[in-house]
Amino acid sequence: MKTKVLLVGAALAVTAVTASAETIYSSNVVGYVNLDLVAGWNMVANPLDAGVNTLNNLMQGVPNATQVFKFASGGWMNGSSYDAEFEEWSINYEINPGEGMFVKVNEPCTITFVGEVKAGAHSVDLPAGWSMVASPTPVAGTLADIGLTAPAVSNADQVFAWNPTAQSYLAGNSYDEEFDEWSSVQTIAVGEAFLIKKSAATTWTRNFEIK
Q1: No. of H helices and E strands in the chain?
Q2: Facing residues of 115 across strands?
Q3: How far apart are CA 124 and CA 136, in angstroms?
């Protein structure tokens, strides 16, 4: 899944992101994110806040019969299908920044998210057990780069990302709290979601500040 990101601020776009930073320094930022999807299954996240983050608002213009499956409360919700003739989804799910979904398309396509990253703290609830999540801010990098370290995760918590080319999950990545590191280096793209399995509920918080 290829990603193109354009963020335009009132004065400047994102100006500094460091490997260990929890904070992105920028003016108020609005823009769009293009995600290139392969035919078949893609694990996708909404990287921007459009105000009303429903499928009808976020994902119009996708191929007919595109399907979305949202994972919530430890299980899969009913699939939503896109009707190109009426330009609407059968179930108008809300997908907020930091939430993920499986998107199944019958042909390669590009979907575009338009919105903003609001200043302040952005939190993602990580319940015990399984959940599908993503960075609540549009920043790519390793799991450590995007802030997925203690206290958001604890020992033996696992992440499972999706390989759209192979149409299969990558090997699980396990967190070692003693050494504050993951068992393998794994990069997460903007607009990419992943499954996480946790032993206890926590909150994953990222900050976006104006400077």
Answers
A1: 1, 21
A2: 31
A3: 7
